[in-house]
Amino acid sequence: MNIHLSSHHLIPLDFKSLVSLPNSHTWAPSSSDHHPFPDSVPVIDLSDPNATPLVRRACEKWGVFQVTNHGVPMNLIKQTQLQTHRLFALPRDQKLRVLRSPDGFSGYGSARISDNFPKLMWSEGFSMMGSPLEHARQLWPRHHANFCNVMEEYQKEMKGLAAKLIELMLRSLGLNNEDVKWLTHPQSLLQLNSYPVCPDPTRAMGLAPHTDSSLLTLLYQTTTGGLQVLVDGVSWAPVYPTAGALVVNVGDLMHILSNGCFKSVVHRAIVNKVHHRISIAYFYGPPWDVKISPLMKLTDHPPLYQPVTWKEYLGYKATHFNKALELIRNDGGEIQAN
Ligand SMILES: O=C(O)CCC(=O)C(=O)O
Ligand SMILES: [Fe+2]
């Protein structure tokens, strides 16, 4: 499905002014909503001597895990959370001053994946590629320094942790950083998500089911849960907020790189009636123009995917959404890129 909506769908609702769900935001329940999953996403302590095999198992079975003892200062996470609330608490017309352009990466707006669904989501977001200075100046002409410092520091910490986790994932497969030399210049995007209090959460969708296009995503979801992952294609397992933990999602590019060994996890965010939920997602990937393909050492069976750059892959994702991986699969996507 690829429904191209006009750019006004980039503009989130004025959530505060609504006492009921408008039809544009009312979703039919899906059959998997009735299959809650009893097991829960693994939590891995990075200081555990067994962390490497635990990471491998989590990536193969789930495509997602939580990490504790990750070394990112809790105070910085709290500051980032505070600045995120500060941004979304701004009056709507002020946030609309920094509206993301339809094909842009930075700024305020509805979820990028909105174009692929017939209904709209109960959320708003703010994305940053590199420094947020330009937008922050428009949001707070005089008081933007704190926001910028915190977001830049957070990106720096996430970059270090992402590199560490990639190394761990590679090591778990018998590989090392020499196999991904191009990762000395990673590319990343920081995305703040806001899910306002919702009058009818069972019929609304915070963020519709998707996989991330990154190599990996590091997500902080505060103490208000809402993230769910799809297990075996039929059941939604909640990812319970765990004090100080960060959620690690395997993204599509890591699935490709691992020649299908690691799952890229399908996930979604649900909303609730009581708490305004925020989450902070850091997407980490290769430089835009580097071709990613299954690592040769893992191709004891033929490579499953054709080489693709992150930029090209995002293009496929925009046109074919959850069929994008099929499109570059060697054993025959029937779909043709257009
Ligand atoms: O808010 C969440 O828990 C999920 C966010 C997410 O999946 C994303 O930003 O890609
Ligand atoms: Fe995601």
TrEMBL record:
InterPro entries, per the entry: DIOX_N, IPNS-like_FE2OG_OXY, IPNS-like_sf, Iron_ascorbate_oxido_reductase, Oxoglu/Fe-dep_dioxygenase_dom
Family: Belongs to the iron/ascorbate-dependent oxidoreductase family.
Protein name listed in UniProt: Gibberellin 3-beta-dioxygenase 1-like
Location of the Fe2OG dioxygenase domain: 185-286
Presence of the UniProt keyword Metal-binding in the record: yes
Keywords for the protein's UniProt record, in alphabetical order: Iron, Metal-binding, Oxidoreductase
Gene: LOC103340995
